[in-house]
Hints:
By secondary structure, the chain is mainly beta. Helix content is 11%, strand content 41%. Residues 30-172 form the CheW-like domain.
Amino acid sequence: METEPTTTLEQVLAERQTSSREIIDVDEPQTQLVIFRLFDRHFAFPGGSIREVINGTTDVFYVPGMHASVEGVMNLRGDIQSVLSLNGLLHLPDSDVQEPARAILLGSGAGIQTGIRIDQLLDVTEVAQSRLKPPLDSLPDHLKPLVSALLDFDGLPVTLLDLDLVLQAWQQHLP
């Protein structure tokens, strides 16, 4: 009876140490995103643009004479910050979500630091850059200059907005 040659654990380990295999780094570059809902649409900002997520119950005070897109101002640890609604700029109806469920993203771009009212924070996460797809030509014209990428997030279509471009567009729409 013929026996098959056996390899001992020591032989396998010795072979691995002497072999010159190339090690390939499979880690992909990641991008941090703040994913949120406005009305019935899902959007995201790059994590580097958002400094803080603030509870939706924070008092926001109306300021007479401000543009309709300025919800008001809030006192955040002694700093007064404006709070914007992007619904008009993004051509979305006003939200009917009640305050406790809503949140404010404190972000900065285009030389402005401001709060941005959102209906719901979905996630703050890192995604592989390969999951970000270029914007489609079929995007509505008002969104094309604001969108940097598209993403499928847990089965939801998410539009990645560039906060610098969003705030520049907001400034241009002021009277």
